[in-house]
Amino acid sequence: MEQVFQVFVSGLLSGGIYALASVGLALIFGIAGLVNFAHGEYLMLAMYFAFWMYGIFSLDPYQSALINLALMAILGYLTYKFIMERVLDSSHSIQMLLTLGLSMVLQNLALMLWKADYRNTRIAMTTSTLDLGPLHLSTARVLAFVVAIAASVALYYFLHKTYTGAAMRAVAQNGKAAQLMGINLKKTYALTFIIGITLVGLAGLLITPIYPAFPTAGAPYGILCFIVVVIGGLSSIPGAIFGGLLIGLIESFAGYFIGPAFQQAAYFLLFILVLIFKPSGLFGKG
Question: What's the mean per-residue pLDDT of the chain?
Answer without folding.
Answer: 93
